[in-house]
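Explain this fold:

***
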Amino acid sequence: MWTIVPAMVAVLLIFPVSGAYAQGKVYTWTDARGNVHITDTEPPAQARVTDVVEDPASASAEAGQQRPEPKGPYGERTRREQAEAAGQRAVEAEREAQEAVRRADEQSRYAIEYRKRYSNTTERRENFKYKIRAEEEKAEALRLEALKAIDRARSASEEARPSLAPQPAPRP
């Protein structure tokens, strides 16, 4: 038991210090008497703030921003990988759109054939009208799905286009 107490005291002493790192801001300010304070809490309104240090990771996370892209070969590799991924997404979306159009076309042909086969007489038309309507509704649903897939492919292609364009050379 007595060996646990020093460990707990050490943890409790370290825990408040880690709060400054968790918050991400450290203030340096001078009070009315001229004393310099370094705290993780905001200084009083009448204090003269000399410096505020923010942790870049927490500042960008608070603002909902991404970290700036690194310069040099690593940044170029990241841009290239992002461009390739955007190109792959565009190709995949195009393939899905073509498949959706094919399915819609096939269903439309089937619905037309079904209508021809089962609506040649008034009696057959009456007996199969629900099935004919169901096939036509399937064809319409697939047509709408194909249009959405085409829109997704178009937007993926537009998204990939700027990233695939050559980057201008930096000026010396």
In short: The helical segments are 4-23, 56-63, 73-118, 122-164.
